[in-house]
Amino acid sequence: MRGLSLNPTSSTLCTSEWARLFVVIPAYNEEQNICRVVEAVKGHFPEARIIVVNDGSSDATAQKAQRSGADVIALPFNCGYGVALQTGLLHARRSGAEFVVTMDADGQHEPSDIIKLLEPHRAGTADLTLGSRYLHGSRSYRVPRLRRYASWCLSRLLSFLVGRSILDTTTGFQGINKRTLNIYLSLRDFPEKAPDADLLLYAHVNGSRVQEVAVTMYEDATGDSMHGILKSFFYVPQMLVSLLGVLLAYRSFARRSM
């Protein structure tokens, strides 16, 4: 959790608005990090609801998250990041969330940057904000070359499909309003490794306005990325197929609606 800020920050949101902010954190065997992540979020935004989805961890992740002040949803076994994320989003919607911020449990994301993710929503210019490690003004660790190349390939393709530049297609640091929350949860086959380019494309074709925000992103000390070096070999072709599936499904639905 190198560099993680614990100092409270001021904001323009009132207490009642912060109370409708949900921070969803999928977690799997993160007992070394989860306390500091939860405590840092609470230090900046004490009124926000913090939801840790314990994805069948074999360590003390759930107990430590609960002791730190988070609401914990326990999955019976390891279901994968996508299922854990979808579970947290469903809980947030059923609990009346106005905004949802998704974060990783490994300490990569800077909690004070949550306000940056929410500013475009407050201004009415975005429905989905992406905390980007590649946008000008961001501060990020050095991404391994192969992962960076895979991300660049998908960035170029997704940017072409949505008609605007999107540089970081795999960021787990997102700000989501009600509109996008409903769009995400309307997807029958929620991506197993969400967030990813296919989910962003799905949001776009369903009318969600997507905007990137420069943030600070730290390196995952565990090195256990969903898009690790070996996985990057297969990532681009798999995502090409998934993006094509989103487009075909959308065009088929559009034709039936005419």
Structure characterization notes:
The strands form two sheets. A seven-stranded mixed beta sheet has the order 3-2-1-4-7-5-8, sandwiched between helices. The chain has a two-stranded parallel ribbon with strand order 6-9. The chain is 43% helix and 16% strand. It is globular, with a radius of gyration of 17 Å. Mean pLDDT is 83; it is low at 1-12 and 252-258. The chain contains nine helices and nine strands. It is an alpha/beta fold and 258 residues long. It has a single domain (15-257), classed as Spore Coat Polysaccharide Biosynthesis Protein SpsA, Chain A (Alpha-Beta Complex), CATH 3.90.550. Helix 3 links the parallel strand 2 and strand 3. The N and C termini lie far apart (51 Å). The chain has helices at residues 15-19, 34-44, 61-67, 81-94, 114-123, 145-162, 178-185, 197-205, 229-257, and strands spanning 21-27, 49-55, 71-75, 99-102, 128-132, 139-140, 174-177, 210-214, 216-217.
